[in-house]
Structure formats: C-alpha cells, structure tokens
What we know:
By secondary structure, the protein is an all-alpha fold.
Amino acid sequence: MALRVAVSVSLVALLSTVAPAEAMTGAEWQRLSSAARAAYVDGVVDAWVVVIVQESLGHKDAGITVFAGVVTCLRDRLVGHDKIVGAVEKYMEDQPGLRSREMPDIVFVAFGPFCR
C-alpha cells in the first residue's frame, strides 16, 4: 500500500511539471534543417487528414469543414509534397513579419494560391 501511494505521489509530481504543448513559431521553424522543416509541414497536413475522417463520421464543426476543404483541395489538384513544402517556404520568405505566428496558421495561409 505504501508503495502504491509513493508511486501515485511521484506520478502526480512528475505530471505537474509538464508544460502544455505549444505550436512552433515561424522563426523556430526556419531554424530547423530543411528536412525537419519539410517533416513539420507534412505533420501539419497529416493532422488535417484526420479531420476528413471526423467529418465522415458526422462531426460537423466549422473548423473541421475548413481543414477538410484544404485537404480536399490539395488532393483534388494533385498538389504534391514538394509543392506544399515549397509554398510554405516561399510564404515565409515573402512574409517576414509573420515569423512570430504559429506554424499551423502559416501553413494554412500558405496554401491560398492552390485553394482559392
């Protein structure tokens, strides 16, 4: 019993030190290697694919609908990995004032030329 209490107290102490996750900023993203930047953008897009599944399961949320629209646009227009990453890289170069913004927002806006 004493061991269970000690483990529980230790677990609570450990979990209380964990900070909530925050999205990477554009400036942080630009400091990554080229491969890491591409992987990050891929991860953002992959996360948006999940929203298509949620929408197909009947979750009608405005946010889900927006991201599903972007993913559908990229798929329907056959926008490949290199073009997706290139669009984000170019957007960051052209918009240096937005480097303090969170990367998922930047990635979303960078797809504008493909999905208007």
